[in-house]
Specification:
2 copies of one chain form a homodimer. Helices cover about 35% and strands about 25% of the residues of chain A. By secondary structure, chain A is of the alpha+beta class. The first copy, chain A, has 2 domains: about 140 residues, 60s Ribosomal Protein L30, Chain: A; about 180 residues, Alpha-Beta Complex (Phosphoribosyl-aminoimidazole Synthetase, Chain A, domain 2), CATH 3.90.650.10. In chain A, the strands form 2 sheets. In chain A, strands 8-10-7-11-9-12-13 form a 7-stranded mixed beta sheet, sandwiched between helices. In chain A, helix 2 packs parallel to helix 3 and helix 4 packs across helix 8.
Chain lengths: ~350, ~350
Amino acid sequence: MFKEEGATHKIEELGEFGLIELLTKKVKIRNSSSKLGVGDDAAILNYSEDKDIVVTTDLLVEGVHFDMVFTPLKHLGYKAVVVNVSDIYAMNAQPRQITVSLAISSKYSVDAVEEIYEGIILAAEKYGVDVIGGDTTSSLSGLMISVTAIGEVEKGKAVLRSGAKENDLIVLSGDVGGAYVGLTILQQEKEVWKVNPNSQPDFTGKDYVLERQLKPEARKDIIALLQKMGVVPTSMIDVSDGVSSEVMHLCKSSKVGCNIYEEKIPIDPTTYQEAREFDLDPTMCALNGGEDYELLFTISQENFDKIKGNPNLTVIGHITTKESGTNLISSGGSVIPLKAQGWNSFSKKN
Amino acid sequence: MFKEEGATHKIEELGEFGLIELLTKKVKIRNSSSKLGVGDDAAILNYSEDKDIVVTTDLLVEGVHFDMVFTPLKHLGYKAVVVNVSDIYAMNAQPRQITVSLAISSKYSVDAVEEIYEGIILAAEKYGVDVIGGDTTSSLSGLMISVTAIGEVEKGKAVLRSGAKENDLIVLSGDVGGAYVGLTILQQEKEVWKVNPNSQPDFTGKDYVLERQLKPEARKDIIALLQKMGVVPTSMIDVSDGVSSEVMHLCKSSKVGCNIYEEKIPIDPTTYQEAREFDLDPTMCALNGGEDYELLFTISQENFDKIKGNPNLTVIGHITTKESGTNLISSGGSVIPLKAQGWNSFSKKN
């Protein structure tokens, strides 16, 4: 496409993945210590004889990734660590170090920053990582947290997005859609609060979905479980942008297709009920909601017996050929092409 | 000090270093792979038999670290890489990988982001590092670049801030103060431009100081030179916040004092002349200006003959005992205690 004179492309039109693809196409790898660059949950570095080092980074921006009206600062610090270690687990690796950079506007007090850091340190303890560095600076407006996580995995044992093979089973840990429904509730309460600042929200019975949104956990336990079971996934990704988007990433990287079965997608009863109360389709929340930080992975069929019946793991579909496309098989049996309607920070209307 | 009821501490009162000290005092190191944590130019990781891995991260925020009125986007991307690899060189290490995270408001076009990335890729080529990952997201206002750099150094050969010994010589690469004087010129031209947007600034003869501010370079060459000379510094730091502040960091970490000689501080003639035109004291620009990205290091006296007469290296003083304090010996012979008047993003009035 030719650019009109004087016109500039809008970032929203490209979206995050389009932009990253555009920016990184000129990136060259020149060092032998860089084993895998951009394009997976983490990069892989080759510095050691017996280990691979994995590195990932994520940015949380006020007003885009979190809303200070309903996000407790300690939870925010905790979540900033979780979203990063989740990417490390998605490589089948163990997180060891993080760096934490904060940009903070003058509206925040030292106490506020200390609260954020309390959450960071709590998460660091929980996931066994060391805070080894960072940067702290002021910002003209709002708060921003940039975390880089470093981890390790036995040489050659990192699980990439690109290893899925035809007939592999697609497995999801835990349940999905809760974080999105939790966000919907919080956003509605914010609107109520804006009209009547004295209103007290009633969150009775909604704890599960609120916690999924405000204090997600990374699935360290699933990596341990798989190791105990002797199951090595053929491919893996964490669910940050929604199951639909993540399945498509796996299929694209692995050059395969898939069938996902609507009726198999694990949805918690609270998520289901709260979605219905908001006139939302629970399946759509589960497929496109994002921020669940579950692990989505593929295993060869011969490993099915090992995971069968485990309450933490659900087979939601299987890998097909690239030509078959990436499809959702609805409860009624219809074949619907998956769409990556995952959350896109650039399409947000601000 | 007791906090008044309802009062909260202001970040400006603590400053960046005070805040970092406060936040990181509860940080614990639990992994054997974390060899050195917060408190030097970079952290050191122990993942390999024969190498130490070093990691550093720096955040550049619009309106705080750069002004879009006079900062070319390509230069900005370049500088974001330089400030990070400079920290890697300050460990006596070689940078190998970087991650780059961008938060961008909707006022920026795709073309603008591509320009930033061009600068990033140009710097990556120049310093031989690979862009291995990152994150790209929208922001509610302004632009923010967070870079993490990873490098390597032969096991045990990293140079820390803490190794300076009494009688060691204090050496500075290149010259200092230029970046600050360059910034002063650009800020003045911005004021002129605000009054008369059609005005054309005359930058004749000011190229050197403007380039020091807008397109600084990291001293890769100095690390190579020292290696060639067979000189291993006893301590080292890069000059990002001003010579005065950095010398005090070295002395604090090494538990020593110092005498710095005003007449020895290397100042470029352009820097000197332009400072004078702005009624600034060139020595104060050199000591407190910051952003020069030169290397400041200490060597034992027996290495003096090796560096003597090299135009890139200047002995500016020597290490004394902690009890003697950190002093500037003025050209007139007065002993003036050094003050860390280095640039502090939190004391900026926005």
